[in-house]
Amino acid sequence: MEQIGKPVNKNRQIWIWTGVGALFICALYSLHSILMPFLTGMLVAYALNPAVARFEKWGIPRAVGTSLMIFGVFLVLGLLLCIAIPFIHTELLRLAYHVPQYGARIRNGLEPFLKDAALYIKPEDLALLRNVGSTYMGDIITWSVRLFARALTSGMAIANLISLIIITPLIAFYCLRDWNRILGTIDRWLPRPYEAKIKALFIEINTTIGHFAKGQALVCLMVGIYYSVALTLVQLEFSLIIGPIIGVIAFIPYLGALVGFMVSIGIAFSQFPEWSSIGIVAAVFMVGQLLEGYILIPYYIGDRIGLHPVWVIFALLAGGVLYGFVGILFALPMAAAVSVLVRQGLKVYGSSPYYLGPKIS
User: Fold this and answer.
1) CA angle 244, 248, 249 (to 5 degrees)
2) Are 336 and 205 in contact (CB under 8 A)?
3) I want to staple 41 with a disulfide (CB 3.0 to 4.6 A). Which of 168, 228, 244, 250 is the partner?
């Protein structure tokens, strides 16, 4: 009878934990509109915990170390936002002002190609193409840039920013101060027969997320610095806006460089009369891709993380569709955790009878 009872108990445990997990995911989805400051605070606490733990080793009480870290980090972020947002707002408005001029220059530059195209396109279609391009393109780009600039100072953006500035530090402080107590509580909730395996799994997940986050942050920082400096040296206008944008978007493979390349080539085409300068801008992006793909990513992230670029892109898109910006923010940590779970599951499957099959005598 004992032999029969054990599988039933295991199946019951599996169903219970599956149900709890499903309820937890449904709750997260239902409350996703208010999760931003809470999840961000937890993420900040997770990132700052190693530094606070080091303060504890030096004899500094955890509450004091937590206060110092939270105050210092959010003070620096607040100063950067106060400096960056007005600068970006001004530069975007200046870009919007110059967009019609850029459109005229691009249209004049494309005129020889349109003349060649007249040999293969009907005159009425070519005239329609010119009218559409000259009438709407500059207005659309100008409107888009102005809309983005107004979004930086709109009421909703300010409300979200205030929510992040006020609530996130509080959540981060309490989570960071009580970090050891929270881990102890979770440890007491773990099923005793699987405690060692679950702890080992969480340690591997923590290591994977830590390596990936540190490496990706360094890659984004260096990519942003490279494009800012390189595009400034070739005297491209708005290089101090384009470079940081590429660095921020660099955590999505190839998207940051693609967006930056399209914007930079468009500005270069309208700014420089000679093709050599446009070629230099294109060369900057070719060198940047080689630097990122063959030096920075292998050195700072490496294959040991186990996150394929396709999996990263899928995780970001899925997170954005399900939870918006919050989903994008937590997509990569969750992707790293899921990759560890999948690898462990495949190991268990590889040694199970379902894979090995019955022994053949």
Assistant:
1) 120
2) yes
3) 168
